[in-house]
Design brief:
This protein is mainly α and 224 residues long. It is built from six helices and five strands, in the order βββαβαβαααα. The longest helix has 36 residues. About 6% of the residues have low confidence.
Length: 224
């Protein structure tokens, strides 16, 4: 979870963008906010959780909009763990950072100079993000999240609908099995992608072995 801004003030009074990304499915949610006060951010986060469910863990940076008593009480009340990344080390939240850049790239193409209306394009931006193929999971985030394709103007997804009562046991069993297969498929792809990224980092990394008696520099990070 991250916050971007400030951006040009829109006619609706918005200046910030709240970005929430599910680590497993890569499903992203973007919301326009008028400010980054703790109350405003907490209200937007609670609305997203009400729509999608409460996660087990939330990862944010050290910003005051996330490091406050309101979010602390929310975590306690909703029973999720709130972890904060290391200060001055944004790579710890690399997934959200990459999503932020994708959001900005899509918005630039849609807004096209109409800066006072950028918040009107956020829903289309979210749809574009979640309907695009993601190499790490081997499918689209929307499919990984909902087990079906997102209906767009170019692709109409249909499935038989029953109005004769509750679904039978065969349907429930098949749907449960299909959901399990989707998550196992996504998990396996994530593990393969993580292994590939680890190998790339190892090739680029330098030997930093420190032996007794060697002169080293220690970086002191102030907590603020």
């Amino acid at each position: 979870m991250d916050l971007m801004g400030p951006f040009p003030l829109t006619e609706r009074g918005n200046q910030y963008i709240l970005v929430i990304v599910d680590f497993l499915t890569r499903f992203a949610v973007v919301r326009a906010l008028p400010n980054k006060y703790a109350e405003t951010v907490a209200e937007a986060v609670s609305e997203v959780f009400a729509d999608l469910g409460i996660p087990q863990t939330v990862l944010t940076d050290q910003g005051r909009e996330f490091r406050n008593e309101i979010l602390k009480e929310m975590a306690k009340h909703m029973q999720f763990q709130h972890h904060k990344i290391t200060a001055y080390h944004p790579a710890s939240n690399g997934l959200c950072e990459r999503t932020n850049q994708q959001v900005l790239n899509i918005l630039r193409g849609m807004v096209d100079g109409k800066d006072q209306y950028w918040d009107l394009y956020l829903k289309d931006t979210q749809m574009a993000l979640n309907s695009a193929y993601h190499k790490a999971i081997g499918d689209t985030p929307y499919y990984a999240m909902y087990n079906r394709d997102l209906k767009t103007s170019d692709l109409w997804w249909t499935r038989p609908t029953s109005f004769g009562g509750p679904p039978d046991e065969d349907f429930i069993t098949a749907r449960t099995q299909r959901s399990k297969e989707v998550y196992e498929y996504v998990r396996d792809n994530l593990l393969r992608a993580a292994d590939e990224q680890c190998r790339i980092r190892q090739k680029k990394s330098k030997d930093t072995t420190v032996l007794p008696g060697m002169r080293v520099f220690i970086k002191a990070v102030k907590k603020g």
